Amino acid sequence: MKYLMAAVALLALTACDQQSDKKAEGAPAAIAADIPAGDYKLDKSHASLTFRVDHLGFSIYTARFTSLDATLKFDPKNPTAAVFNGTVDPNSLDVPSPPENFLNDLRGPQWLDTAKYPEITFRSTKVELTGANTANITGDFTLHGVTKPLVLAATFNGGYAGHPYDPNARIGFSANGSLKRSDFGIAYGIPAPGTKMGVGDEVQVALESEFTGPPLAGAAAAPAHP
Question: The domain containing residue 128 runs over which residues?
């Protein structure tokens, strides 16, 4: 969910802000300290958004959205002021080996109702540092026409100011969160109390993402992906 998405990028700041004398776990100080402030955008070739729900109590069913986008504005010296906006196209829902018409059902009125609600969004409202390379990112999450707060637990995985073969700043994040779909008006198939006969109300979301930012000084333009 969008990613929800999500929204994660803010974390680069974490490591950068706390690097004066020691390394943030998982992010070398020499690399994180070089990350420039500025505008970052999602590298769609290196991003994924998956979600998981309980199915009949027999398995945790996993699916994904394949069309997502995001922007991030941040200053490593002021990580909690970062601003993240993300969007997801719910029509890009992808599930493993779908039976005939299954995807149409999921996109239909009983579930996502994508004809009426063609976008899922996440707008960050607060960033709280929780460790050397972790943060909680709170945002306004809109799904199925309903907007509610959503918190993503994010981890900064590393970054650099650029490379001769990748001449833009790059940062990477992982983020996880959970929500109840019934809070967003999607209650079809939720098991009756005391049973697991149906599809669970709780939805777990996971975002893996890389963002590209300002160009490396003196570097040529980044090559287009094939």
Answer: 8-215
The residue among 20 and 76 whose pLDDT is bigger is 76
Does some domain include residue 120? yes
Dihedral of CA 54/55/58/60: which sign?
Answer: negative
The pLDDT tens digits for 163-197 are: 889 999 999 999 999 999 999 999 999 999 999 99
By CB neighbour count within 10 A (0-12 exposed, 13-18 middle, 19+ buried), where does 217 fall?
exposed
Q: In this structure, what DSSP letter does residue 108 have? A: S
Model confidence, pTM? 0.82
Work out the end-to-end distance of the chain between its first and last CA atoms, rounded to an integer number of angstroms: 27
For 207, other C-beta atoms within 10 Å of its C-beta total 29
Residue 3 within a domain:
no
Q: Total domain count for the chain?
A: 1
pLDDT digits (tens, 9 = 90+) for 44-93: 999 999 999 999 999 999 999 999 999 998 787 788 988 999 999 999 99
- Output the domain CATH number for residue 75: 2.40.128.110
Is residue 2 assigned to a domain? no
3-state DSSP assignment of residue 30: helix
CB atoms within 10 A of CB 196: 13
